Amino acid sequence: MASITETAKKLCEISQKAYLNPYTYINWRDEMPKEQWFMTPELISIFGTSEYEALNESQRQILSFYEATNFFSLNIHGEKSLVEGIAHRLYSKELKEFAAYLHHFLDEENKHMIYFGGFCQRYAGKVYRNRKMEIPREYAKGEEDFLFFARIMIFEELVDVYNIRMSTDEKLEPIARQINLVHHLEEARHLVFGRLIVEHLFEKYSPGWSAQVLQNCKSYLSNYIVSTWKEYYNPDVYADAGIADPYDMVEKAWNCESARKHRAKVSSKVVEFLKERKMIDEEPAL
């Protein structure tokens, strides 16, 4: 406990020193031409398919705009859930030692939604809908908190790989690159805390769970990784970009061999973390 508590205090200090005003950090443009790069080509969901190869550069750039809008929309939905969950747990008995840092967590995630929402609303005129569904159920002691923070960690680990890549890609439109950079810089602190709190909760509560509860948690986390990736393949994006048969495109892109390798590579760090700590038994079917 001392290690995670001390780390949380240090993260508070860093967050205070690195505070950014979300209303002045980005100089928003009035108009945003779509024929430029908004997402690194290799990160576009249909990259590697024959359909992608058939597009000219202008069409690829327009697709990259809608892919970036989807990526930012996924972050909005993920952070809405995170903010709701943390606010609900703020000052709870189990997490009171971390309340000071959870305030910074909330503040920074709210700012991220301002950046992502600012882009989506200004330039796309919408946020893509949330496709995830959570079904209410009963939980064993500590199970709900563990799964909540594990979901956050998984989502942010995957997103951060994209943020890092796009924050340094000079092909990208500057505002898109800037949003990825600021998100990475603040998420780096969240990831440190996320790994520690997930490990702490698992070590504290899992010894008291039945074998069935433990197996259910493992299956849930493996399925969550897959379902998170599924959201990157959005038929609404393909329709907006003018790609024929958008639902068919989802299947083609998901089953593309290069896409499978890409998902496995991006997921490898968080999957290894979960496997080493016996939170999952095997790699998810990506």
Number of strands: 0
- Report the CATH C-level class: Mainly Alpha
Helix content: 55-70%
State mean pLDDT (0 to 100 scale): 94
Structural class: mainly alpha
Largest sheet: none
Look at the structure and name the CATH superfamily: Ribonucleotide Reductase, subunit A
Strand fraction equals under 5%
The name CATH uses for the topology is Ribonucleotide Reductase, subunit A
**Helix count from the secondary structure assignment:** 10
Runs in which pLDDT lies below 50 for 5 or more consecutive residues are none
Q: What quaternary form is this?
A: single chain
Q: How does CATH name the architecture?
A: Orthogonal Bundle
Order of helices and strands: HHHHHHHHHH
* Termini gap: 34 Å
Overall radius of gyration: 19 Å
Question: Rough shape?
Answer: globular
- Number of domain modules: 1
Topology:
Blueprint: H1 2-17, H2 50-53, H3 57-89, H4 99-124, H5 143-167, H6 174-205, H7 211-230, H8 235-240, H9 246-255, H10 257-276
Helix pairs in contact: 1-6, 3-4, 3-5, 4-6, 5-6, 5-7, 5-10
List keywords for this structure.
single chain; 286 residues; mainly alpha; Ribonucleotide Reductase, subunit A; 10 helices; globular
What does this structure look like?
There is one protein chain. With 286 residues, the protein is mainly α. It has one domain: Ribonucleotide Reductase, subunit A (Orthogonal Bundle), CATH 1.10.620.20. 67% of the residues lie in helices and 0% in strands. The protein has 10 helices and no strands. Helix 1 packs antiparallel against helix 6 and helix 4 packs antiparallel against helix 6. It is globular and about 55 Å long.
